[in-house]
Amino acid sequence: MIENIDKLLLKYKSQMYADLENIININSFSSNLEGIDNALEAIVNIAKKNDIDLTTVYSSKKTRPHLMYGVEKEKDYFAFVGHFDTVHSPSSDFNQYIDDGEIIKGPGTNDMKAGLIVAIYSFAILKKLYPERDLPIKILFNSDEEIGSTDSQEIIEKEFINAKAGFIFEPGRPKGEIVTRRKGIATLDVEVIGKPAHSGVAPWDGINSLLASCEIIQKLEALNDYENGIIVGCNQLNCGIARNVVPPHSKILVDVRFEAMSQKDILFGKIKNILTEKNGVGAEVKYNLKLNRPPLEMTKESSLLSKLYRNTSKQVGYDCEEISTGGGSDGNFLSAMGIPTIDGLGAVGDFSHTKKEYIKKESLVYRTKIFVLFMIKLLEKN
Ligand SMILES: [Zn+2]
Question: What is the second-level CATH architecture of the domain 184-293?
Fold first, then answer.
């Protein structure tokens, strides 16, 4: 079997790089909807060349297009998930595919257009290896992961409800590590409403929203418990009118993260208590605490998948550890639906979301090989 995979990879290799170059050179910043359309079309064509028919799908809001394969599959399928939007705006000077022989740079190389190529060619190779079989695979490539998957979350939750495992093609880490745990993410916006006053004439008539905000920030920050995976980061404070005006209004933006769903209610309860108890200056407090992504948790089943993948990687000649990260992905949604999920199965690289973003060139091919072999082991069990 390995020889057959090698043969097919040899045949596809130059096409894989050409396809990657093509989609990297199309800017698909999440809010560049024209670029999103162009990237979508290019990905459809890449898949079509490989006998994979991707269809454009929309959420009920119909705000933006996403791509799917296998919509008709009803149960016992494997979910392949990736995204084709990036964080790099069209006006950025980081806008081109650069291959220096060892590494490939460009907007969205690591996060995660290389992962899309790994997913598409893995499926293409599996189709060649099992020409008689209708493979139990369902694919979603969404266009809004970098902005929280607010549109595609609904599609993920509807289409993957009966998936037996989830595979996310976000980048592998610099030493080839895969991701088996991701923190849950919530956003907290706190509005603090005081009362303006001339700070030289009658400061006692005012209610200082900045002072109240400082008190609230101190209490929120005290909830940080890094050892147990809890982060409450008060990272932005907007307030004030002028040097001589008691500030009547402040807004605090807080990044909240936690490791397990079992921590969520307790943490949210503590946050609500802080925000509803009286502050020293008597400012009014309004807040909006919203769960953005539940955590990707390691389960018995997902740890077996991780072990199988890592052993396969070693078999192919690449050491592979598993890591946990604070960043979220669409794997978080699958995991919260009870689907054993592993992540970071794309190419190997680093510096996502920066202009230093790159992948190791060879990893595009060997990560495809590892994933194909891993899938064969799962398919042979069925
Ligand atoms: Zn990503």
Answer: 2-Layer Sandwich (3.30)
Task: Please write the tens of the pLDDT for every residue from 1-59.
Answer: 899 999 999 999 999 999 999 999 999 999 999 999 999 999 999 999 999 999 999 99
Residue 187 Cα, ligand 1 centroid: separation in angstroms? 19
Measure 346 CA to ligand 1 centroid, in angstroms: 10
Q: How many whole angstroms from 4 Cα to the centroid of ligand 1? A: 31
CATH of domain 2-182+295-381: 3.40.630.10
Domain segments of the chain as ranges:
2-182+295-381, 184-293
Q: Measuring CA to CA, which residue among 2, 42, 1 is closest to residue 22?
A: 42
Locate 277 and state its tokens. Answer: 């108890």
Tell me, in angstroms, the distance from the centre of ligand 1 to residue 83's CA.
7
Q: What are phi and psi of 234, to 5 degrees?
A: -85, 95
pTM: 0.89
Q: What is the DSSP letter of 90?
A: T
